[in-house]
Amino acid sequence: MLILSIESSCDETSAAVTKGREVLSNIISTQIDEHRIYGGVVPEIASRRHCENIAAVVKEAVDKAGITFSDIDAVAVTAYPGLIGALLTGVNFAKGLALSLGKPLIAVHHLRSHIAATYLTHKDLKPPFLCLVVSGGNTVLCEVKDYTDFNIIGQTLDDAAGECFDKSARAMGLDYPGGVNLDKIATKADEKTYPLPTPKASDGKYDFSFSGLKTAVINLIHNQNQKGTQIDIPVLSATVRKKVCDILINKTLSAAKDKGYKKIVVAGGVSANSELRLRFENECKNNNIEFFTPELKYCGDNAAMVGAQAVYEFEKGNIADISLNAAATMPIDLKTE
Ligand code: KG4
Fold it and tell me: Using 50, 70 and 90 to split pLDDT, how confident is the model at 39?
């Protein structure tokens, strides 16, 4: 089954052609340079760039795959969650395409796609497994019982891990996307010089909270600036990185032990973090747990991961109606009540 997929939930316009877990093309047009001067994504600019780029990106994906539009069996699109104007551009384009080709339309949840990115790298990986999805806007710990059956056991009560990285990095004067740059320059953590709090997420055992940590980093920088003390940015970066990794790894491993999971998947943009990947790998090895994460090129937003999940949505009969709408928020289990 050849699937043409479209992703436009944030600041990447992407289109891909996939056949199961095989990627025939995966075109990504990033807007990072344009948003950098504002220190973050400007939603209206993102929507307008998607609108300008989407047709050319889709055409390039089809050409690069060496197929024609008539070879496509289904059109898949990220419908939720994300920036609403950005999502609407992709959803509307996908609807027009599906209608004109007379092919089924498949709506895909963005975080399900991030998890499915792991299938592109680990071709034999099958649920059930425990999964931590960490991106710029979401931090979710869930049981993946089957390809389309998700049980959320924990999530952030405030900021996402990526947001904590990005905003801490911004306070340190690093360029957007801060998480990436913070990871690049981080050296060795020093928790004595830069003590940071471990947040308590009292509402649930596996829930996360990152806003207190982010605020502590911002306050620490202000205090040091007021005293005229020079901040060692690479060391502070490493200290923030270590703290975020400690929180994510401890909760995930304790959930895996409690629930008896022997397979852990870590996906989403933040799964590109070098310390997170390395420490998860080692901790899982020490605890006799198999660890899976997408290769770096599939960690960030891309359409190939949408295609990887779309196959299972299609098999489950999850075909979207042509009146499909986008949604800015949506839990991974799609339960809205
Ligand atoms: O999944 P993604 O590409 O977009 C969303 O769906 O949100 O994730 C983007 C997030 C940003 O917060 C970015 O700073 C973070 O992932 N990120 C990283 C790294 N690479 C990307 N954070 C820490 N270390 C990295 N190496």
Answer: confident
